[in-house]
C-alpha cells in the first residue's frame, strides 16, 4: 500500500460457525519486516512478534464492528502494512473432522479520520483457580503510577470487552481516580463464553494520566476436582479484557499485564511492589556487595540437600520483600532469562530448601493469587 487509509469496520466471514469462537486480526510492526506465512499453524493464542497490535476481531454473538466517525485504525504507507489473523475454536465435544474457511472482511476508507484508534489488552497471567469454590476472584490492575507515565494526555474509551473460559462467572473493568471508583467500563454479571457482551459507548469514557484500571474476574470451580491453571487454551482459565480507545498516540505503551498480583508495568518503572523495588533488587544481586547473599551461596551451594544451617541462612535472606509471595515466584521465572552466575547460584540454593522453608513460615508469606490491588 502506497497510500494512507483507515480501517473503519469489520465483518466476519463465518464458515464453521458451530466451532468458531473468535477471530483476531493483529497488525505487524511496520518498522520490522515479517516474512509472509501462507499456511496455518498452531499459535496457542499468543501472537507472533512483531505482530502483536490488535486491529479488530470477532467473537461469537457479535455480528460486526464499526468505528465511530472520528476514529479508525491507520493502514498503508503510514500505518500497518502486514497483518496476522488468529482463529480460536471451541469444540467441547471434541468432535473430529471439522474444517474451516472463515475470515474477516475489513472496510477501509481513504478519508482521514481525526484520531487513530488503538486496542489495549488488560491481562493477568500465571494464576490458579482452586477446585470446589463457588466464588473465587482474581484481581489485577494497571496502577496510577504507571498510567501517569504511560498516558501522555486524556484518552477516550469507546469499547470494552471481557474474556474468560469455562469456569467463568463474572468480570468487570473499572476506572479508579484519586482512590475512588470513577467509572465501570465493563460489567458482566453472568459472563457467557459463547455470547460475550460488547460494551460500546457513544459517549466515550475518559481515562486520565494517573487513573487506575482495575480488572476483577470471578470463577465457579465447584465442578472441578483439581486446580485449574492459567492457560490461553481451553484447558485452563483466562482473565483478560480489551479496551478500544483514541487517540492511540496518547497511550502508545498500552499493555497492562499482571503476573498474578504483580503489575508488570510497576516492575518496568521500578516502582515499589509490596515493598520490593524489583529491578533494583535484581541489579544488586548481580553485584558482589550483597554480603548475606554471598554467604548463603558460599555455605549452601555445595550441599546436595538442605542442611539446617543453610535453612537458617535462607530464612534471613527470604525476609527481603522481593523474595516473598508472587514477587518471589516472578523472580524465579525471571532468573531463566538472566545470564548471571550469581543469580543462578542463588536460585539453586533457594529451591533446594523451598519445601522445608514453606513448612517453617506463616502461610501469609505466600500470597494467594487474587489478593492484588484493591
Description of the molecule:
The chain is an alpha+beta fold and 374 residues long. The protein has helices at 144-150, 264-268, 278-285, 291-300, 308-317, 325-334, 341-352, 354-358, and strands spanning 4-13, 20-27, 53-59, 65-66, 71-76, 83-89, 103-109, 115-116, 118-125, 128-129, 136-142, 155-163, 168-177, 180-188, 198-207, 212-219, 228-229, 239-246, 256-259, 262-263. The protein folds into 3 domains: 1-116, Jelly Rolls, CATH 2.60.120.310; 120-271, Jelly Rolls (Sandwich); 278-365, no CATH class. It is built from 8 helices and 20 strands. The radius of gyration is 23 Å and the shape is globular.
- Shape, per Cα inertia axes: globular
The total beta strand count reads 20
Mean pLDDT: 86
Computed Rg: 23 Å
Quickly give the CATH architecture of the largest domain. Answer: Sandwich
Strand order of the largest sheet: 15-12-18-9-19-20
Main β-sheet description:
6 strands, mixed
- The structural class is alpha+beta
CATH class of the largest domain: Mainly Beta
Number of domains: 3
CATH topology annotation of the largest domain: Jelly Rolls
Helix content: 10-25%
Termini separation comes to 46 Å
**What low-confidence regions span 5 or more consecutive residues with pLDDT below 50?**
362-374
Order of SSEs, N→C? EEEEEEEEEEEHEEEEEEEEEHHHHHHH
- Count of alpha and pi helical runs: 8
Question: How much strand?
Answer: 25-35%
Amino acid at each position: 500500500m502506497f497510500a494512507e487509509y483507515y480501517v473503519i469496520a469489520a465483518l466476519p466471514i463465518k464458515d464453521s460457525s458451530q466451532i468458531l469462537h473468535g477471530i483476531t486480526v493483529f497488525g505487524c510492526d511496520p518498522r520490522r519486516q515479517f516474512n509472509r506465512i501462507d499456511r496455518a499453524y498452531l499459535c496457542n493464542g499468543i501472537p507472533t512478534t512483531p505482530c502483536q497490535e490488535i486491529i479488530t476481531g470477532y467473537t461469537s454473538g457479535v455480528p460486526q464492528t464499526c468505528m465511530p466517525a472520528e476514529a479508525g485504525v491507520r493502514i498503508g504507507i503510514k500505518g500497518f502494512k502486514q497483518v496476522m489473523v488468529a482463529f480460536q475454536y471451541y469444540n467441547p465435544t471434541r468432535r473430529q473432522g471439522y474444517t474451516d474457511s472463515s475470515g474477516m472482511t475489513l472496510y477501509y476508507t481513504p478519508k482521514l479520520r481525526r484520531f487513530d484508534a488503538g486496542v489495549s489488552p488488560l491481562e493477568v497471567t500465571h494464576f490458579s483457580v482452586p477446585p470446589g469454590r463457588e466464588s473465587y476472584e482474581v484481581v489485577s490492575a494497571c496502577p496510577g503510577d504507571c498510567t501517569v507515565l504511560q498516558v501522555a494526555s486524556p484518552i477516550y474509551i469507546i469499547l470494552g470487552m471481557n474474556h474468560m473460559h469455562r469456569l467463568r462467572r463474572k468480570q468487570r473493568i473499572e476506572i479508579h481516580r484519586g482512590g475512588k471508583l470513577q467509572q465501570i467500563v465493563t460489567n458482566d454479571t453472568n459472563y457467557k463464553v459463547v455470547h460475550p457482551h460488547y460494551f460500546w459507548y457513544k459517549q466515550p469514557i475518559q481515562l486520565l494520566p494517573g487513573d487506575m484500571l482495575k480488572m476483577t474476574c470471578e470463577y465457579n470451580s465447584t465442578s472441578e476436582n483439581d486446580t485449574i491453571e492459567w492457560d490461553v487454551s481451553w484447558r485452563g482459565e483466562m482473565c483478560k479484557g480489551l479496551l478500544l480507545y483514541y487517540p492511540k498516540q496518547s497511550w502508545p505503551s498500552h499493555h497492562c499485564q499482571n503476573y498474578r498480583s504483580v503489575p508488570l508495568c510497576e516492575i518496568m518503572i521500578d516502582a515499589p511492589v509490596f515493598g520490593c523495588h524489583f529491578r533494583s533488587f535484581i541489579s544488586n544481586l548481580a553485584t558482589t556487595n550483597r554480603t548475606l547473599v554471598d554467604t548463603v551461596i558460599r555455605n549452601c551451594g555445595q550441599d546436595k540437600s538442605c542442611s539446617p544451617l543453610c535453612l537458617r541462612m535462607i530464612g534471613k535472606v527470604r525476609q527481603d520483600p522481593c523474595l516473598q509471595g508472587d514477587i518471589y515466584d516472578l523472580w524465579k521465572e525471571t532468573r531463566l532469562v538472566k545470564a548471571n552466575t550469581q543469580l543462578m547460584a542463588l536460585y539453586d540454593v533457594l529451591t533446594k530448601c523451598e519445601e522445608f522453608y514453606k513448612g517453617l513460615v506463616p502461610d501469609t508469606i505466600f500470597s494467594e493469587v487474587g489478593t492484588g490491588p484493591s
